[in-house]
Amino acid sequence: MIDLKAFEVWFVTGSQHLYGEETLKLVAEHSQQIAAGLDSASGTPVRVVYKPVVKTPEEIYTTLQDANVAKNCIGIIAWMHTFSPAKMWIRGLSILQKPMLHLHTQFNRDIPWNSIDMDFMNLNQSAHGDREFGFMVSRMRKNRKVVVGHWQDPEVLSQINSWARAAAGWHDWQGAKFARIGDNMRYVAVTEGDKVEAELKFGYSVNTYGIGDLVKVIESIDHDTINNLVDEYESAYTMADDLKKGGDRHQSVFDAAKIELGLRKFLQEGGFKGFTDTFEDLHGIIQLPGIAAQRLMADGYGFAAEGDWKTAALVRAFKVMGSGLEGGNGFMEDYTYHFDPDNQLVLGSHMLEIDASLANGKPSLEVHPLGIGGKADPARLVFNVSGGQALNASMVDMGNRFRLLVNEVEAVEPQNDLPRLPVARVLWKPYPDMRTGCAAWIYAGGAHHTVYSQNLTAEHVQDFADMAGLEFVRIGKDTRLDQLRNELRWNDASYR
To answer: For a FRET experiment, which of 31, 139, 244, 354 has its CA 20 to 30 Å from that of 331?
Structure first.
């Protein structure tokens, strides 16, 4: 699990010297209490750190400059307890490189009707202090999330937590490295994209490594280490006797373990956070990595098949955002449909590489022919994914911008055993319905590869998209096809 408590968001309160030392002392005390309350609230994924109240352009600039370079600071929460003239914020906001949340709150929940006086009014001016600040942020076209309500309100805390998780995912992308082992699947369009533009916009790099680079590492793994991993397989998964040590088909499992160990070592030594491969480019590898990809994803690596580096990076970001929450995030593909008028469903799966963290129950380790690629029969984990609310997300390169598309879905428990389908799988109903959801996805240019999430919401993804400067398109319960098509037209016009 990725430890999000290693990250900090800074709580920065604005005021001014106009109000005198007594008022500023109370502003600081209230700010400290709010920061401590947010930090200790149940569900807060990161640390919330109080910073001294900023009262001058110089203090603002210095605090935001420090936030930019602080290694563990992933964003700031800004709040104007009193009026803070917004021209003071121009220099600081102009250099701020970290995500920002504007918390429009006040220290007290209720107006003290019987005792309220002008001292109270001068101290508690968020209602218009935050509007002054909000104007300047809008005037400067700065991305931010605005959360309104009392700081102890559960809904306010939920929105802050969503933003903090998104900020952690965005922070993790900065300087991240993703390995494209081999190239893209031949002639496929949607898995391609502008890697230079991605590095400029998102902060991560994607570079290609030849299969020989990986094969050299795989061949360096010793037999004892491989046998130890095979023992782990036999303990963790259901396996047929002929796949276990001494069995007729054990060699396939041994080879798969060797590939996993070599791939893991390659990623660790290279400092990579994710990778891609493709079954069309496996020279020197005896079988397509199946269980290796499944287990590496379960350990937090990003992955996507067939050279799809955009999805691999998005898998990693979702894993960071969802760390500590119940459920998993992993690579997925819309594979085939069930068009029964009374029960329309999508069967999501892939040839081999569905994330083991999505498994409902104990997976079965199985070996079957792949049917394509001309390689040895690969080992893979076979399991069902449980029902419940979920989403699919896809990032595509539209030529002049990247688009992040989300379809909210309802996963359902498998209704049949599928005894001859030797892959991990999940069934879901797209919102708002099969016809609208699938048509909307296609109109929006969504890819066949996605990130499937059991624990993130559209709010998490939209917060992340805002930080990354991504066009965000949501398909949910309230989606109407005519409105969505208009939204796509308006977006095209705004990006020209």
So the answer is: 244
